[in-house]
Amino acid sequence: MDGGLHRSRALCRTAGLRVVRASVAVTATTTIRVVGTAGHVDHGKSTLITALTGMDPDRLREERERGMTIDLGFAWMTTPSGMEIGFVDVPGHQDFIRNMLAGVGGIDAVLLVVAADEGVRPQTREHLAIIGLLGVERGVVALTKRDLVDDTWAALARDELVAALAGTPLAGAPIVEVSAKTRVGLDALVGALEAALAAAPARRVTGRPRLPVDRAFTMAGFGTVVTGTLLDGDLRVGEEVELVPGGARARIRGLQTHRRAIDVAVAGSRVAANLSGIEKDAVERGMVASRPGTLRPTSAVALRLAVLREAAVEQDEELKVHVRTAEVMARVSVLEKDAIVGGESAWVHLRLAEPIAAVVGDRVVVRRPSPSETLGGGVIADVAPVRTRRRDAIVALERRSAPTPLVRLLASLDIPRTASDAADRSGLDARERDAAVQEGLANGEIVALGDALAARSIATDARKRRSPSGG
Fold first, then answer.
1. What whole-number distance in Å separates Cα of residue 431 and Cα of residue 447?
2. Residues 56-103 pLDDT 10s
3. pTM of the model
4. CATH classification of 1-27+202-293, choosing from 2.40.30.10, 2.60.40.640, 3.30.380.10, 2.60.40.1230?
């Protein structure tokens, strides 16, 4: 890429980072893992990331003056075994939960940080709940500030932490006692992170890349830069992208991962994309950069909403909805009952105040706007729900969330569609799509209609309507 090194250095200067020569080449086959922090305010998340990586993730002057993370911060490292890890450092204060949610949607594992001198605090518990709602299944717990407490106090803090983790995705996760000040335990922490990430599944690749934007800024001489965690496919320098919602188009002038100029950004990696042909004011957090025509905005989503034990959701209640980096107000229509009490779940339609870019399979977290409270979450089953009788809507959603790819694909073949379109509506990757199509054609449940496919029942009904005798 012409000017790649110069652009790389300029990008780093803009982000307030020092420039280093790349020691590991990033290619289309490189596996890069992303870890998000979680934990209560002032428990040492940013300090720990700085000790691990040598980079201060707090990039805003106000953050450094207040000694508190306000927005998302980023850092990275190469472990002794050669593993590439990017860190998304999130704020711990309750006033900035919205920023925390924007940062943890695309991570492979979580690094939960709990200070040994304070123990489990309110945002520790709320972050744990959010981790569960987002489906994050692996992580490591750092018991920080170990230099401030004696062995007896540390043992009490560990016991309290084990109790708090029970019943959460991090129950049984390794707990590593560390001190960012003395560097005690840091090597063990890196080893525990490596082990957790080694067990993480490969990132899903559908061939339709999405870059949910968590940050946009202008770089003098180069224009607009957006950052995010790349999902579902690769992006290349020179490609055209569309910003959804909105439909504005731009071309990728340059790409970076971990300060290094690259030609191809791989799914699952932290990416900075230099975009030409678009002004920074036309881009905002919550938008998604994708290949033109592959992603449509939606103003309604359907999901099975699981409500936290201490919360409740009322019929037609106004909620704040978080999907990837997007945040939007919505009204909830509960399909199975008049309300969802704590600890229960039900199918719902969320009618969004503004359109967002979302796909089947994306995780949703809902919060009450005032007083601010996390209520629950779930997995999107439909991004184009239609108004129909409640019972019919529930049956359709049950099929869309079935455990087998074929049943989910059949639910999307309610009208003739291409295999690719039906797979997108079903949340299937290319491998699952091809296997389901082959199985459906073989057993007769799917019928080919030219370039399209349809469920046999739909095709049969269509033939009956076209037949003069109706048979």
1. 20
2. 876 545 545 445 454 678 899 999 999 999 998 876 555 557 777 877
3. 0.84
4. 2.40.30.10
